[in-house]
Amino acid sequence: MTAILSGNRKASMLARSLWEFFNFELYCSIHDDDGQPNRHRIEGILDPSSIGDVRIVISLRRSARQEEGLVHELLHANLIPLGYPTFWIDEEQGSEKWQLAGGITNNAEHVVMLPIYLSLGCPKHRFLGASRPPTDQERRVIADLVEMSPNLSTPDGYLTHVSAYLQRQNVTFRALHLADAIVKKKI
Ligand SMILES: [Zn+2]
Q1: Distance from the alpha carbon of residue 84 to the mean position of ligand 1, in angstroms
Q2: Which residue, among 136, 134, 133, 158, has the nearest Cα to 148 in the 3D structure?
Q3: How far apart are the CA of 184 and the centre of ligand 1, in A?
Q4: How remote is the CA of residue 70 from the centroid of ligand 1, in Å?
Q5: Ligand 1 centre and the CA of 93: distance in Å?
Q6: CA of 103 to the centre of ligand 1 (A)
Q7: C-alpha 102 – ligand 1 centre gap (Å)
Q8: How remote is the CA of residue 106 from the centroid of ligand 1, in Å?
Q9: Whole-angstrom distance, CA of residue 44 vs CA of residue 94
Q10: Which run of H or E residues covers position 62?
Q11: Distance between CA 181 and CA 42 in Å, rounded?
């Protein structure tokens, strides 16, 4: 991780602060570029009422966008110490509603992440990797979230507005405050 970010001091500092915040449970594996997107997983949540040791696991594809790809995934994780809620989606994994909810929360996070990404000196056109064209529904979700972006700039506003949006789509979910759980364990 350090080597990938060596050309960007601010991003290196972000990685170090996350490393410490997550009690060194921040992992990154690098894979050959097989066309799959980069990912981050939050592990350690057994169920919404039982939060264990939270770990962040990033898998990265080797590509020309490797540095920005890593910054992008770190910024997803960074929403936790910033106090943003993590939405636990209580729908059947792989179902249409589960995928819709995943698209909503992922794109809502992107709205919050983009200004921070730009403040780290990363180029806007590399914020997202190449992916398949969005479906009409995905396009609608992204447009709705961009429209509500002024309301997403604080953790409370984000909680209120993303929760309301998920409710309107009849998604069953719980909002988890992982920062509180992590900080409590440090004391
Ligand atoms: Zn993302």
Answers
A1: 15
A2: 158
A3: 27
A4: 10
A5: 19
A6: 10
A7: 11
A8: 6
A9: 20
A10: none
A11: 13
Residue found by looking up tokens 């009422």 in the block: 49
For 119-143, the pLDDT digits (tens) are 999 999 999 987 778 899 999 999 9
What was the pLDDT predicted at 4?
Answer: 93
Give average pLDDT by consecutive 10-residue segment, the chain, 187 residues: 93 97 95 90 90 95 93 98 97 95 96 97 93 88 95 97 97 96 86
- pTM score, whole prediction: 0.95
- Return the SS3 of 132: coil
Q: How many residues does the chain have?
A: 187
The C-alpha atoms of residue 11 and residue 120 are separated, in whole angstroms, by 6
Residue 59: its H or E element = strand 50-61
CA 187 to centroid of ligand 1, rounded, Å: 31
